[in-house]
Amino acid sequence: MDETLHNLLAPYKDKSEALIPILQHVQGELGYLSDEAMLAIAGTTGIPESRVYAVASFYAQFYFTRRGKNQTKVCSGTACHVKGAARILDTFERELGIACGTTSEDYEHTLETVACVGSCALAPVVVVNDEVHGQMESGRVGKIVAGLNTNGG
Ligand code: FES
């Protein structure tokens, strides 16, 4: 086991009841749940690896591949769809240079769609790093992406 993982998991030895907090802690530190991390979690807690995967897979908050530092989520719920979410998504794909559902090679950006985020009155909605942008227009996408690139995240 790598040293970072070893240190992260040290407090959880045999703590099988703490699986969700462990998954959250490890993902919070590493950005995602690698195969190595999942194996280490199983080994540390004594929970079978298949069970660790089953639990983590159940929750949309857990990721098994490395994601970008900036995460852009275009709402694809009905209200946003009707108000032109597809066009907004196209523009993000072009500005970020990545397809929906992928992460850039430099791990700066991940672009994906999400189900309704509960702000339908603001449709179409895009969530960038947890910040909600309502009544989105294609013309605003370039500025948002430039801001992410300028801030270095
Ligand atoms: S459908 Fe997009 S916020 Fe509800």
Entry summary:
The protein is an alpha+beta fold. Helices cover 46% and strands 13% of the residues. It has a 5-stranded mixed sheet, covered by helices on one side.
Task: Chart the SSEs and their pairings.
Blueprint: H1 3-9, H2 19-30, H3 35-45, H4 49-58, E1 70-75, H5 78-82, H6 85-96, E2 102-103, E3 109-114, E4 126-128, E5 131-133, H7 138-150
Helix pairs in contact: 3-4, 6-7
This protein binds FE2/S2 (inorganic) cluster.
CATH architect. name of the largest domain? 3-Layer(aba) Sandwich
Task: Indicate how many domains the architecture comprises.
Answer: 2
Biggest pleated-sheet summary: 5 strands, mixed
**Using DSSP, what is the number of strands?**
5
Mean pLDDT rating: 94
CATH fold type of the largest domain: Glutaredoxin
User: Which CATH first-tier class of the largest domain would you pick?
Assistant: Alpha Beta
The unreliable regions are none
- Tell me the radius of gyration: 18 Å
- Provide the list of bound ligands, each named once: FE2/S2 (inorganic) cluster
Relative helix content: 40-55%
Main β-sheet, spatial strand arrangement: 2-3-1-4-5
